[in-house]
Design a protein that fits this description.
The chain is an alpha/beta fold. Helices cover 38% and strands 14% of the residues. Strands 9-8-7-10-11-12 form a six-stranded parallel sheet, with helices on both faces. A four-stranded parallel sheet has the order 3-4-5-6, with helices on both faces. The chain has a two-stranded parallel ribbon with strand order 1-2. β5, α6 and β6 form a beta-alpha-beta unit. It is globular, with a radius of gyration of 20 Å.
Amino acid sequence: MRGGERCLEAMCELYPDADIFTLVHRPEYISETIESHKIYTSFIRNLSKNINGFRKYLPLFPYAIRKFDLSGYDFVMSFSHCVAKDVAVPAGIRHICYCHTPMRYAWNMRNSYLSKLSMPKRLLAGYLLNLLKKWDRKTSAGVTSFIANSKNVQRRIKDAYDRDSTVIYPPVDCSRFILSKQDDGYYLIVSALVEYKRIDLAVEAFRDFGRKLIIAGNGSKLAYLKSIAGKNIHFINNVNDIQVAEYMQKCTALIFPGEEDFGITPLEAQACGKSVIAFGRGGALETVCGLDNLMPGQSGATGVFFYEQNVSSLQQAILKFEERRNEISPQVCRENALRFDRPLYQKSIQNYIQSVINR
């Protein structure tokens, strides 16, 4: 249950009779609220015995999403970071796309993906990404209107699709978290363990840094991260929502080393009254109030930014936090998170849907 699933879950509460269409589905990781709906999957699900390998079929995703039959529905909402926005919608039916980001592979993280490949694979992948980029821009025309999950993504939508969008921030279920001043002496990461999250940077920074780090999550980089970790770094797999809340309530601060489209995790930590040490780009600039760069309307600091994705920069940010942590109020952290609370998201999204239908 990551950010995209949290958005979907809140929508499922608003529209309990809605059907769900998705490329792949892993019921063991999805909430009961989502599972209570009728869920349809694509043929991608049947191509591999190991569902974790579905990403290698990326070139087939556009074809798979178009195979869904949405005839008979009155309204379509897509949650898209890859191909969902190109679902075939019957003529005359409104289609709102809640865009987590234009396709990362083809746009803002293209070089990061290609740099890890050998030259022959890089050439082939580059050719395929060029095709996907053209396809991604072209298919944006099938969307009635766009919602962006952040100002950061709003700018990407404009650059990639030349379309305007309305920002509605993803929901933070603040009721799951309680304000806590307990500190058990460890820093925390809660994340999918995949390349662009840059968990490797945090592992390298903490390895010989004399501080304890707990990493909660699963993903394709787990084995590699364990191989480079020191004894002060601990991995916790398959954590549920209750366990995540407990780890956050007892941590010293949350480490957020990657560039995210938005990023719900820093706000969940702040809902517990915890500070965030974050890379100062992307969505974190909209969710974390930095010690040295408070913006108008921000009542106080909730964390520290570092601006270069290297070990030294992250370590310096941690040292700054430890030196000045008394300037960050747990209450201010929670108040900042409450600006993104789940009921506010639901009200905003329901009003927006109605306005589009009325149009």
